Structure formats: C-alpha cells, structure tokens
Predict the structure.
Amino acid sequence: MKQRDYLEWGEVEFLVDRLIEDKQFLIGLFVLIGCATGMKANDILALHWKDVLADVVFFREKSTGRYYYANLKDETKSNIEKIYQGLGMPPLEANCFISRKKCVYTIQRINVLLKQVSKNYLGGKVLFTTTTLRRTFGREYLKHYGANLYNLRMFFDQDTEEFTKNYLRLYTETPVSLPKICAITRQWYSHY
C-alpha cells in the first residue's frame, strides 16, 4: 500500500479531535500548530504558551532569521484552549512541549510519536513526519489562496516554484519525452 506524506484538512481536524479525546495533548498541539502555521519543527518546539494562546502566533524562523505571523482560525484557537486546560493550564511563560523528563522534546522524539500516531489513528496510510505537517499547510494554503506558489516558495525558502510544487506533491501533468528518457537510460547503463 502506497503511503501519502500529507493530510487533507478534514483528516487534520479528525486527528486533532481524536488526540484531544485520548488525552494525547502535546502531540495533538504539535500537529495542530504544524498544520495551521507551516512552522518548522524546531520553531514549533521553541513556542511558549503565551505564544500559542495569543490571537496571532508571531515567530522568528531560526534557520532564516525571518519573522512571520500566523492568524489562527477560531476552531484552531478553541482546540489550543482545550489542550491548555487539559494539561492543567501551565504557566504562560512555560514551553509548550516539555516531556516527562522536564526537557523540551527533540525532533527525533516527535517523529517517533508521529509515526505512532500514523499507526494508531491513520491506519499507517500516511508517512507521518514533521515535514508532513508543512506539506499539509502548503496544500491547504494553495486551496484557500489560489495558485500563489511564489509566497509559499518564499516561506519554505525554496529555489523554484517547480520545486515547491514537487515538495507539496503537486506534480505537473507535463508529458515527458520517452526518447529522451530512453537516451538517458542507455547512457546510464553504458557506464556499468
């Protein structure tokens, strides 16, 4: 069975609701913020409660140094509030993603948790990593704002719009010349 590496927005809503019901609050919050904002995993892990409970999530991307803000939908804010209350309303200055060992989760640990989420909640149909969340955000952004790949390319810090389309798994339907492929294949095999 072929796995996807993005979610449709309906799947995100279903998944977050199920994670909240099952008291899987931190991974639910990570999925929700990742899909709603397109933030990189390191930037999500650096968030504090005061950041996510605000009407607008304002953040500085570590890798590029650029500043961004994300307006959250009312439903997203409502889910964040449920998660906050479910965790016992930690101090606003506290980091959101503190493990039982009292340290911030690592990206490796988050990816392990996302893999478990895929298995337990998505039937293993989605190759679920931190990149999946950014792809989901990008695809949803395009649905709402049209084919404005330029903005996404800049946000994702990618070289070309074609690369962004491939990153989002929006492959073009451009026919490929078979003679060219055959010539490349023959050339590659002739080296061995």
